[in-house]
């Protein structure tokens, strides 16, 4: 088995055209974020993982039900707008929020190599998800932040080859992670703008 970023679909491989963001490859790449939390090694992040999984499933269910109207995420949302329960639209919105939280945390960690993950995730939470959460959920996330592993241990896991091969050099890992994060950031920003400009997030 290869090191982490060779085992998951990269956001750099998600087709983005004038028509929109390809639905299936985006969901495959989003699953890579779910798996990333396994490397953090804390049960405290189970709530984050479950939320991401649930929202991926909602979008996938919509695609499976009407694939001809769901080839891109934008098309999927547009074709659901007249329905009473916009389950996939809400699911995608919360998925984007969770992805933005993860992306920003790792960008903060990448920008300053001395920043521990607990600090990076706490700063990201304040900037992304916190405003959408009630008191109880904020408490759950506060626990999760404190349970973050040391950054060195996490990055060692990202670089490691579970089959026992040599780890990825730090320079190569940074290069792959930065590309992955830049692509995720670009897609998440594009879709959030799409939601905001069309009021698709209203009520959620």
UniProtKB/TrEMBL annotation:
Residues 21-159 form the Glycolipid transfer protein domain. InterPro entries: GLTP_sf (IPR036497), Glycolipid_transfer_prot_dom (IPR014830). SUPFAM superfamilies: Glycolipid transfer protein, GLTP. GO terms for molecular function: ceramide 1-phosphate binding; ceramide 1-phosphate transfer activity. Keywords: Transport. The keyword Metal-binding does not apply. One of its GO terms (cellular component) is cytosol. It comes from the Eukaryota. PANTHER family: GLYCOLIPID TRANSFER PROTEIN-RELATED, PLECKSTRIN HOMOLOGY DOMAIN-CONTAINING FAMILY A MEMBER 8. This is Glycolipid transfer protein domain-containing protein. It comes from Phanerochaete carnosa (strain HHB-10118-sp) (White-rot fungus). The lineage of its organism: Eukaryota, Fungi, Dikarya, Basidiomycota, Agaricomycotina.
